[in-house]
Design a protein that fits this description.
The structure holds 2 protein chains of 2 kinds. By secondary structure, chain A is mostly helical. Chain A has helices spanning about 5-20, 25-40, 40-60, 65-80, 80-95, 100-110, 120-135, 140-150, 160-170, 175-200, 215-220, 225-240, 245-265, 270-305, 305-315, 320-335, 340-360, 360-375, 385-390, 400-420, 425-430. Chain A is globular. Chain B contains 4 helices and no strands. Chain B has one domain. By secondary structure, chain B is mainly α. Classes of the chains: A mainly alpha, B mainly alpha. At the A-B interface, helix 1, helix 2, helix 3, helix 4 and helix 13 of A face helix 1, helix 2, helix 3 and helix 4 of B.
Chain lengths: ~425, ~160
């Protein structure tokens, strides 16, 4: 068998393993190890599994920022930032038709700015916003879909765990990825708010107006936003002006989050322990999955499959936009069945040579990938954010939530098209970086 | 007997996980102190990068086993969730034993690597700390992870046989 044939069989076996329910890291590592052993010999494969775990866990300085950013988000969550953010945005937008849903999107954006995970954003805001929307008679469809879609902002608005992993895999600047995600993230939130406005303009009964708030209350409610401003400012300001490396930004922001939580007297011993426990758990699973992806990528490299795929697609003679459309379509299909991180880890080694040969900017491609993965979080049948919201809103059917998501998906398609045709939306801030 | 083993296994993984969690606090303080010392006193802390990498690694390896106990290692269950209970258990038994096999190999190689590092005096780049104790720590973390997958396999087999 030729190496590319072995590579194709390996990919097939990996997909079977993935869908058989084995943890993703194991599926990638087993195929990577066995495939490498077949092509390069048992001793070389043993050398890989001897060194890769240790180098992944102990020798990647870039990845050390992951536990710090996760810790920042966990501490922010335990200090009650999410509830106060929601109340503030609600004071400003709650009186509009669909205002509570718009406030949910606003609060999701704010929480996303201190949290790098979409499922965490959806779960947190779901528990805060859903009861409130229910209280004001919002339709279940609009309320649940808003939180599920709003939660996806977690991985586009920096800091973002997915961007860190992408940066490590493609050796692109994590600072630039974070900066590049800012404007698309804000734009996405704007699109969602517009979507809610249109839905409620057509049928006001779906999202009745909340009570009006006086201007003095509106102004005073802004004081609740200072923790987010400080944390987001520390990370983004530090990265933008070249003061921090991503690890330093993560460490400093985690420390700031810790001080804010202590200063507000919201952090209990139980909350601190829970934050630290969750952080280690998330970091352990992420590092282990990167270890599996590294073993897989070594195997793929010796099969030469990624280069052959790049050559094959280039020889098709399609223009670069058509090729990008094909890639995006593949990601959208995969997003319906697989979780975002695993899609990225499995596909990046394949697509990287192709993207480079097409002359696309890797920072821009990173934003597009993260954006597409976000869409996968709310598309059936495996829309993880929908499962999360279903866990909070037990009396709402999956069908109802997915139906409610359709307008948000339309808005997503328009948003992604804008990012595709106007790369400067993502790249303009990175070009001004110091 | 198996229940007792699982009980003590879970206890042990929680202790490990707690150590991994506790490491995060000095790590956060060290990074912040390094930034402050560099920008305010123009005196960066020597070897802080080595120390942060080492602390991250320790935290991860101490957390691997407990993450497995709470089923925190992500999997795709789009297909398996629709299978009958018995088929699900059989499939899980196969995936458990595959995971155990791979982890056993990695753990064994980790011991070999620790020996190599000890004999050839591998050290970190700035502080010249020997690597082998950390490779041994990795081995211990992996060993416990291995034990978790093995007990999971036995529990699954017991469950499948009982059906």
């Amino acid at each position: 068998m030729t190496p590319p044939e072995v590579g194709l069989i390996g990919i097939g076996v990996m997909l079977i393993l993935l869908f058989s329910g084995i943890p993703i890291a194991f599926a990638m590592a087993i195929v990577g190890f066995v495939g490498f052993a077949y092509l390069q010999g048992w001793d070389n494969a043993l050398f890989q599994i001897r060194t890769v775990p240790f180098s992944t866990f102990f020798m990647s300085y870039t990845m050390t920022c992951i536990p710090m950013f996760v810790l920042m988000g966990e501490l922010a969550f335990h200090s009650g930032i999410s509830e106060e953010l929601y109340e503030t945005v609600n004071d400003w937008l709650g009186h509009l038709p669909g205002g509570l849903a718009m406030a949910t999107i606003g609060a999701c954006s704010g929480f996303a700015a201190v949290c790098g995970s979409s499922t965490a954003t959806a779960a947190t805001m779901g528990s805060v916003a859903l009861p409130e929307m229910r209280r004001y008679g919002y339709s279940k469809r609009l309320a649940t879909a808003t939180v599920a879609a709003g939660g996806t902002l977690g991985i586009l608005i920096p800091p973002s765990v997915l961007m860190i992993i992408y940066g490590v895999m493609t050796e692109t600047s994590i600072s630039k990825l974070f900066i590049a995600g800012f404007i698309p993230g804000i734009l996405q939130a704007g699109f969602y708010i517009l979507t809610i406005y249109i839905i409620c303009a057509q049928n006001p009964a779906l999202g009745p107006r909340g009570p009006k708030t006086s201007w003095s209350k509106k102004i005073s409610s802004l004081s609740a936003t200072w923790p987010v401003i400080i944390l987001f400012g520390t990370v983004m300001g530090g990265l933008y002006f070249g003061v921090f490396t991503p690890t330093e930004a993560g460490g400093a922001a985690a420390f700031a989050s810790f001080c804010i939580a202590l200063g507000r007297r919201k952090l209990t011993w139980k909350g601190l322990v829970s934050s630290l426990f969750s952080t280690v758990q998330i970091a352990a699973f992420l590092f282990f999955i990167v270890m599996g992806a590294t073993l897989l990528s070594y195997f793929l490299a010796v099969t030469r499959l990624p280069d052959m795929l790049a050559n094959f697609i280039t020889q098709l003679g399609l223009n670069r936009y058509a090729m990008m459309a094909i890639i995006i379509a593949m990601y959208l299909v995969l997003g319906c069945f697989m979780e975002g991180l695993s899609i990225m880890l499995v596909t990046i080694p394949f697509f990287l040579p192709l993207i480079l040969s097409l002359g696309y900017d890797l920072i821009w491609f990173g934003i597009i990938i993260v954006r597409i993965v976000e869409i996968g979080l709310i598309t059936p049948p495996v829309g993880i954010n929908v499962f999360v919201i279903k866990g909070v809103a037990k009396d709402t059917s999956m069908y109802t939530i997915f139906r409610g998501i359709i307008p948000f998906l339309i808005s997503d398609i328009i948003h992604v098209s804008l990012l595709l045709f106007f790369p400067q939306i993502a790249l303009m801030l990175t070009r001004l970086m110091m | 007997m198996l229940e007792k083993i699982c009980f003590w296994r879970d206890r042990l993984t929680i202790i490990y996980h707690s150590i991994g969690a506790a490491i995060l606090i000095p790590m956060m303080l060290l990074i912040t102190a390094d930034v402050v010392m560099r920008y305010i006193f123009s005196r960066p802390l020597l070897g802080s990068q080595d120390a942060v990498q080492t602390m991250t690694g320790m935290s991860i390896v101490f957390g691997l086993a407990y993450t497995a106990v709470v089923k925190g290692h992500t999997k795709v269950d789009a297909v398996t969730s629709h299978l009958p209970e018995k088929s699900k258990l059989i499939l899980q038994g196969i995936t458990d034993i595959l995971s155990f096999g791979l982890l056993s190999l990695i753990t064994w190689q980790s011991v070999v690597y620790a020996k190599e590092a000890f004999e050839s005096s591998y050290v970190t780049s700035a502080l010249f700390i020997p690597f082998y104790p950390f490779i041994l720590v990795t081995t211990i973390g992996l060993l416990l992870f291995c034990f978790v997958t093995l007990t999971d396999f036995i529990v699954t087999v017991k469950g499948a046989v009982g059906k």
